[in-house]
Amino acid sequence: MSSDSKTKIFLEFQFAMILISGNILFAKLIDESVWMITFGRTVFASAGLYLFLKWRDKPLFFPSAIENKAALGGGILLAIHWVLFFASARLASPAIAVLTLFTHPVITVFIEPLYYPVKPKGRDVLLALLVLLGVGILIPELKAGNDLHWGIIAGLISALSFSFRNLLTKKFLSHHGSAQVMCLQSFAAVFVLAPVCYFETIPTSVKSLGLIFLLGSFFTAFAHTLYVKSMFQLKLKTAGILSSIQPVYSILLAWLLLGDIPGYREMIGGALILVAGTLETIRFGKEE
């Protein structure tokens, strides 16, 4: 891989991370249930991606049944990830939701051998544990049974589903276009979440609909398609550890846009996560 290609992939990945980091802001900006927010974002994301595929004259479905099943499974995991991610933000806080989610690099390092004939290297384990330490510092003392406790659990399950979705997607679908992959997974998420409409009131306010449209089209369809494209060109553990910078982006965005000033825990934990991401970035430049 040439130096220019590495730079392009790295910049695309980091831009995707900045956009995805903005997702958490909508947990506070949209006054709807996490179920309806997630359903709405998948509707707008899948519709936008479908129109894009039609414009490019690309098919929606893949040629083999196993690939379509993998996309369906990935879409279900994506729906679980999104619902629990926003639930974590509501139960605990946006910062806790983002930071518990980013145990997923640790999870990826240890479950990747289930999908690929690779063994975790000592360096990968150390970087993953550094990320975990950073996340641990960011989480204050908690008591079992309260909202913070359940928010952290929701965030950890969100991280687990996100890791399995990434592995499943890369193993079976990495030779296809990222927009097609994301479109089919978004459609799968729509059908999984459709029963929400029977139990929740569909938003009618211009503000809610506008924000959900922005979340679904730009911060989901575009951002996640760019993320999937970059992920296909990286090793999964590399993508996982590089994406550990996202909590730092999220905290900065919350600080700048919502006035949530980070405390000393966020500063120290974010610094450790940033160190791990920087070390992996240097390794990526040398070895990928």
UniProtKB/TrEMBL annotation:
Domain EamA: 16-138, 150-276
Range of residues in the leader sequence: none
Keywords: Membrane, Transmembrane, Transmembrane helix
Keyword Membrane assigned: yes
Top-level division of the source organism's lineage: Bacteria
Short name of one Pfam family: EamA
Transmembrane domains' residue ranges: 9-27, 33-52, 72-89, 95-118, 125-142, 148-168, 180-202, 208-227, 239-258
The protein's name: Permease
Species whose genome carries this gene: Leptospira yasudae
